[in-house]
Amino acid sequence: MSTSNRRRHSRRLEGMPESKTGLLLEKATALRESGQAVIDLALGTPDYPPPAFLIEAGQKMIVAGKNGYIGSKGASKLRQAVASQFSAEQSVTVDPDVEVTISAGASAALNATILALLDSGDEAVVFEPFYEYFVPQLALAGALPRFAKLSYGDWRIERKELKKAIGKRCRVILLNSPHNPTGRVFSLEELQIVADLCHKHDLIAVCDEAYAPFVYEGQHKSLCSLPGMKERCVVIRSISKVFNAAGWRVGSIIAPADLTAAIRSVNALSLGAPTPLQEACAIAYEHYAAFCGVHRS
Prior knowledge:
7 strands, alpha/beta, Aspartate Aminotransferase, domain 2
């Protein structure tokens, strides 16, 4: 067979949209490196630096030799910190040994979750407008998005729209709250709509809560905290984003034990987040409440 007849890439990439966020990031980086002043709105990057306690912890862990592999579950101290903080915040008991996984950022967490839960041809509900990585990650798994439009202007979840999007092959609802790109924090009433339909159709809710600490009015409530929903929720957060060190790529996944086992089997293929940075984030969690409180005020 001549090489001209061979495909140079897999079919799963055909029709997969290129990341506009990635393109904007590359352009902003190139302009900055050329000496131009750039206000970069491509990604959620705060205008304050990472806290000194995080940088110092990172340096300490590297010098201390925490530089080897740590396993796909993630650092024990960090899993304990994630479980403790989430339990206190949402009044939900979380077992760090079998319900928490550390990933290479929230994007890798989402990818591992989608690959662990969805087969080719399965469907997932995506609220529109949506975080642009949702659709490509579904496409990579061979899964199909079913769109449920948020009401225009006030960006509310409408029961009728959500019901219409749930088909026979639907297995997952992707819920992003606080919502990217609108910034909307969904109300308890709206969360209950999602919970009701998850119960009715036996669905799993994959909750992208990367912006949970950045709520300036009211309170973010996780879908996981509603009655009967802990067993149906995968909660994804970005630890490094909280401390404005998004490039460290440290994320967390909270899920029931059976789903955690499946997600960990995929997460193991990337060996998780960098070891010294996980250990540093575990130390930084001692300052979590105070740090988030300062930057909410």
